[in-house]
Description:
Elements: E1 12-16, E2 20-24, E3 29-35, E4 38-44, E5 51-54, E6 61-64, E7 69-74, E8 77-81, E9 86-88, E10 91-93, E11 100-103, E12 108-111, E13 114-116, E14 136-143, E15 145-147, E16 161-168
Antiparallel strand pairs: 1-2, 3-4, 5-6, 7-8, 9-10, 11-12, 13-15, 14-16
Amino acid sequence: VGTGVGGNCTGCVICSEENGCSTCQQRLFLFIRREGIRQYGKCVHDCPSGYFGVRGQEVNRCKKCGATCESCFSQDFCIQCKRRFYLYKGKCLPTCPLGTTAQPSTRECQAEECEPGPWGSWSRCMHNGKTCGSAWGLETRVREASRAGNRSEEAVPCRVLSESRKCPLQRPCPAG
Length: 176
């Protein structure tokens, strides 16, 4: 067993001068660092930032997080995002979705506190733009939500909720 580049073969089962570790002791992860066309293996207890550990039958490896991830739990689940991206449900997005606000200090999308107001009145019962001529139509009502606490100028407005229901129409339209 050689000492490897930089003399670090700690935790290695197989180690070479040129490439470092190629096989690690159980429970350790093989982290492969690339330098130009060369690659060098090192056995680590925890994968470095920007990588996540994958346990396998033969070998445990450190794999790179997605391109927008600073650190991650798996390839599909980020914990922290790189600059100019915001964390939302394990994904790093360039902008936060509707109903959330970007928090630059934590690089996360935070849910906005919206309080639903009372339901408005039902609209007229209609089918294809008419209030008659069919057995059934549809009527709709809306409920606006307002932001709890202070409202910033750049805040995304709260979502407007609406609901519809079936309603009876006058089948024949009145003559006239």
